[in-house]
């Protein structure tokens, strides 16, 4: 079943056209890499899927709802409920511990402190950063921050996690270990995963990869398939 799709999306986030008719279908629970050279449009497509960039033509449809048809407040509510986002270098709040960062989305959504704490702790354990739960982001490694960011993206049980260049600050062995954990954790929870990257090694970890070039999705070549 298609969960999230981009249908002939044209996007112009700045002065230039970043997407020129991009098509993508993401099925519930599957993992997909959006692979492309610099400036090919991978980040823009991810931001369109997240409802953070509004297409100038075409549609982004999440579970049957055209995101462009939603008022800002309704769109924000859908995003908070259904999506988890991971950006380069974790993007954690610097003054909060890893555990506090991860439980924050649940606390904001009204969960009790104990409930939020226990679920956040479980996810940090799942991402192998349980031992650093009490540390501040700058007190742990880039890899640990990035894994904590995944725990934060998953804590409210979204249906899709969207990650932009999540291995951008990691060396090759760290990137492989990170992708193993990311794909396994989303798979365990039945969460779909879309990763935007220029790193072809990432593609080997997901169910499939599509290549972007010049703002369009190309049919994958056999060499790009995991
Ligand atoms: N906010 C923006 N303002 C101006 N131009 C933008 C903006 N966002 C994207 N672009 C332009 O759109 C094109 C696609 O950008 P995008 O960030 O989607 O590429 P990308 O595939 O993520 O590449 P990379 O991450 O390697 O830079 C580029 O030419 C970029 O300069
Ligand atoms: Mg990018």
UniProtKB/TrEMBL annotation:
This is ATP-binding cassette domain-containing protein. Residues 4-225 form the ABC transporter domain. Keywords: ATP-binding, Nucleotide-binding. The lineage of its organism: Bacteria, Bacillati, Actinomycetota, Actinomycetes, Micrococcales. GO terms for molecular function: ATP binding. InterPro entries: AAA+_ATPase (IPR003593), ABC_transporter-like_ATP-bd (IPR003439), ABC_transporter-like_CS (IPR017871), ABC_transpr_LolD-like (IPR015854), P-loop_NTPase (IPR027417). Pfam families: ABC_tran. It comes from Cellulomonas fulva. Coiled coil: none annotated.
């Amino acid at each position: 079943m298609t969960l999230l799709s981009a249908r002939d999306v044209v996007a112009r986030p700045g002065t230039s056209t970043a997407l020129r008719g991009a098509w993508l279908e993401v099925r519930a629970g599957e993992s997909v890499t959006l692979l492309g050279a610099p400036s090919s449009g991978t980040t823009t497509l991810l931001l369109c899927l997240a409802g953070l960039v509004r297409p100038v033509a075409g549609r982004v449809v999440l579970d049957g709802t055209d995101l462009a048809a939603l008022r800002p407040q309704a769109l924000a509510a859908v995003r908070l409920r259904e999506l988890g986002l991971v950006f380069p270098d974790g993007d954690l709040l610097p003054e909060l511990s890893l555990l506090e960062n991860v439980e924050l989305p649940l606390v904001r959504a009204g969960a009790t402190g104990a409930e939020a704490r226990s679920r956040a702790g479980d996810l940090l354990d799942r991402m192998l950063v349980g031992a650093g739960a009490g540390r501040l982001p700058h007190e742990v490694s880039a890899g640990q921050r990035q894994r904590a960011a995944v725990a934060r993206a998953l804590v409210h049980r979204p249906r899709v996690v969207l990650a932009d260049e999540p291995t951008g600050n990691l060396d090759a062995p760290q990137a492989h270990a990170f992708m193993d954990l990311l794909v396994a954790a989303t798979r365990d929870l039945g969460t779909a995963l879309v990763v935007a990257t220029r790193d072809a090694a990432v593609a080997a970890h997901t169910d499939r990869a599509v290549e972007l070039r010049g703002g369009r999705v190309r049919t994958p070549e056999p060499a790009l398939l995991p």
